[in-house]
Amino acid sequence: MKERLTSRKFAHLLIVLTILLGLMAYRTWFDGVDGVGADAKNDRICDLSHTPCQILVGGAPLTVALSDPPLRAEQAFQIRLDGVAQGQVPSKSWLEGQEMFMGRIPVFFERQGEGQWLASTQVGACTSHRMVWLLVIEWDNGERQQVALSVTR
């Protein structure tokens, strides 16, 4: 049975299409998401594999360093934080792949002394010869930093 496209059906289709286009435009332009989120402004990516990195936490400089570069996959290494301001605590941290998702590896920092924190960790082997991992550190004041690590097989 063939039905004809009447003017009433055409008007209903036009209303539905207008609503859908309006919702799509709203989601695209007016959803309140900026190109750079509040957390991303605090992210700083520097390659920790070659030299220690300087980052700012709460306006105070902080040094992130590795124990023995170069890093090798599936071999333990240590990450050191020096110059942590009194009262600042790394509340949560993890390693994740930059170009390839290989899960999150938790990193647990322990206080070593005044302003010094140390964590022992390792990363898994990847199919590629060189893998870039991100060390993500979230602080108790809400700030977050990212530091890159290059790891070879």
Concise account of the structure shown:
With 153 residues, the protein is an alpha+beta fold. The chain has one helix at residues 7-29; strands at residues 53-57, 60-66, 71-72, 77-82, 90-97, 104-106, 110-113, 116-121, 130-139, 144-152.
Secondary structure topology:
Blueprint: H1 7-29, E1 53-57, E2 60-66, E3 71-72, E4 77-82, E5 90-97, E6 104-106, E7 110-113, E8 116-121, E9 130-139, E10 144-152
Parallel strand pairs: 3-10
Antiparallel strand pairs: 1-2, 2-4, 4-8, 5-6, 5-9, 7-8, 9-10
Tags for this model:
1 helix; five-stranded mixed sheet; alpha+beta; 10 strands; elongated; five-stranded antiparallel sheet; 153 residues
Explain what this protein looks like in three dimensions.
This protein has about 150 residues and is α+β, with helices and mostly antiparallel strands. The protein starts with 6 loop residues before the first helix and ends with a strand. Helix content is about 15%, strand content about 40%. It has a five-stranded antiparallel beta sheet with strand order 1-2-4-8-7, with no helix packed on it. A five-stranded mixed beta sheet has the order 3-10-9-5-6, with no helix packed on it. Residues about 35-45 have low confidence and may be disordered. It contains one helix and ten strands. A hairpin with a 2-residue loop joins β1 and β2.
